Every structure is written in C-alpha cells, then in structure tokens.
Amino acid sequence: MAQTSIRIGTRESQLAVWQATLVKDLLKQNGISSELVYIKSEGDIDLVTPLYDLGVQGIFTKTLDAALLNNRIDIAVHSMKDVPTKLALGIKQASVLKRASYKDILVYKNKSDLHRLGFEKGAWGVVDEKMQDLNSPFTIATSSIRRMAQWLHRYPHHKIENLRGNVNTRMRKVEESSWNGAIFAGAGLERIDLRPENSVDLDWMLPAPSQGAIMVVCREDDQISFNACQSFNDNATAICTKIEKDFLRVLMGGCSTPISALAELTDGKIVFRGNLCSVNGEHKIDVIKEVPISECENLGTIAANELLQNTKATQILAEIRNAKN
Q1: pLDDT, tens digit, for every residue of 25-73?
Q2: Which residues pair with 269 in a beta bridge?
Q3: Half-sphere exposure in the Cβ direction for 264 (13 Å, CA)
Q4: Which residues face 6 on adjacent strands?
Q5: Cα dist. 67→73, 119, 215, 246 in Å?
Q6: What pLDDT, in 10s, does the model give residues 99-143?
Q7: Sign of dihedral through CA atoms 303, 123, 279, 144?
Q8: Would you name the residues annotated as active-site residues?
Q9: Over the chain, what HEC string results?
Q10: What b/e readout covers 207-244, taking b as 16+ CB neighbours within 10 angstroms?
C-alpha cells in the first residue's frame, strides 16, 4: 500500500511554520510526502493576558492536540518547552529533533547598558554593588515568570514589563518602547534570522526545561506517522529533555512556575542543573547532579526530590499554589 501524504499541523506564526517546514523537509529526505495544515491556537489569539494568568497548561499545544485527535492532522510540531509534562490522552511523542541553542538572550537598546549590567569582554561578570543605587533603574520586558524571577534575583532593583505576542510582534514592541531591553529564547530568533546584533547570551540564566528543542507528536495508534518521524529523532536530545521535563513534572511546573532546568551530555556523563526561584526573585534554590548516562533514567525525578528536601523550596511552591487558588 502506497504511503499517503502526512498532514503536519502547525500554528501560523513565522517560527511555528519554520519548525513545521523543517519537519516537512526531513520527511522529504526520507521519501515521505507531507503538507502543512495551519491551526490557530488560543495562545495566539490572546496577546494581552500574561501566560501565567491564562491558567491553562499547554496553551500553545491543546488546539493542535484537538486537531490531531479529531484526525484533521497526522502529526503536530511544537516548541518542546510549550508541551505539558504529561501529553494528552491518545497522543505520543514521535520524535525530538536535535536541540538548537538552549540559551536565553537579552536584546538591549544601548551598548552602554551592558557595562551597567556587569557585562564585560563577552562574559557576564559579578554585579557591582553600586549598580543597586542607579537613579534610573532598568526596565526589562518578558512575559516569562521564570525569566522574570531569575532576572530579579540578579537585579532586584529593576522593573519588569509584560511582553506578549509572537517573536516578530515582541521584537517590534521592544523597538517601539522605552524599555532598556527584553529577554528572548535565542533559538527562536536565530531560526528565523531575527536575532539582532544588539543582543547577548545570558549565560548565567538557566533555560526553561527543553528550551531549544522541537517535538513532533502523533496519535498513539498511528504507527505509520510514528515510524516516519523516528528517522530524525535525536536520542541525546530526547534523553536530556526527558530529564528536564521529569524535573519540571515533579515540581508541579508549568508556564506559571519559575522553574529552570538543563541536562547536557558530555563525555558519556549527564550533567544536570536545575533551580527554583521565588516569583519576586528574592530566593533561588539550585541543584546540580552528574551521573554516567547509563544511570540517568530517573535523574530529573531524583534532582527534583533532592530540591524538595530544602524547606525554602517547599515554601516557595506552597506560595505559588496558594496564589493560584
């Protein structure tokens, strides 16, 4: 029986279409035809409410999930950091593409601001205590509570503004605003050639779990689509992102929790770093683990449980839960 064309579900943003087209090209390399099917998501429609106020996990994935389960599409392509830690019933992971940059970046307005932030010779240095006494504090834009918390932990005197929309919209808002800068995922801007020269990597900021990775999902009973996508599954990325997602899951994480995680494979070992911040940035609890890859199966869960032994961590999580109720 001849292989029919695979219907690839994607959101309509430039970045989402770029990612879906990449999957389309990978399928083509394996002799499999496919077509893009555009689906508008609830997260794209609401560009005002901060993500952590929408109260829905998988805000950018649930519409595609519904289209998948309703057989309107065969596979869906997601930025993996947007995918909930537990997939919708009837849907399974078909592939994880090789990770691009996991880093957050700062798009800044004036180069002189970098010195005031402690940036010298291409690396983020220790913040000078005098910087806490600036008469005109910085204003940084982001809708990510994780980025906000880590930034305020490092720069407690700064002001944070909400920034929503697709990457093109956010870049335009930064240009038109009086803000000193805004934080973006480096991979998102780099994939569509939007990363400006006036930007720097935030090497000190831990990313969202699975940031920089792309996930493809299909229906659980669709073995044809699953097999087609397995050909470009990157095992190292799949292992590392699973560890990060497990860490997030145990800590009840989602868009509304300031939880960061990064697992990296180096010389046969997995090095894991994770942290939990209070929303206002006052407290940050870190955990670091290193194990041989043969022993990494439950590393994310182990790291999360270790962090939960810290009284301050459990207090922060309790405060976040109470704020939601």
Answers
A1: 999 999 999 999 999 765 544 544 443 343 435 566 888 988 999 999 9
A2: 266, 292
A3: 14
A4: 34
A5: 6, 46, 16, 26
A6: 999 999 999 998 888 877 877 544 444 444 444 444 457 899 998
A7: negative
A8: 82
A9: CCCCCEEEEECCCHHHHHHHHHHHHHHHHCCCCEEEEECCCHHHHCCCCCHHHCCCCCCCCHHHHHHHHCCCCCEEEEEHHHCCCCCCCCEEEEEECCCCCCCEEEEECCCHHHHHCCEECCEECCCCHHHHHCCCCCEEECCCHHHHHHHHHHCCCCEEECCCCCHHHHHHHHHHCCCCEEEEEHHHHHHCCCCCCCEEECCCCCCCCCCCCEEEEEECCCHHHHHHHHCCCCHHHHHHHHHHHHHHHHCCCCCCCCEEEEEEEECCEEEEEEEEECCCCCCEEEEEEEEEHHHCCCHHHHHHHHHCCCHHHHHHHHHHHHHHC
A10: bbbbbbbbbbbbbeebeebbebbeebbbeebbbbbbbb
Tokens of residue 148, six digits:
């906000």
CA 197 to the chain's CA centroid? 22
Tokens of 89: 């019933």
The structure's pTM equals: 0.88
Give the amino acid at 23: V
Q: Tokens representing 301?
A: 């869960």
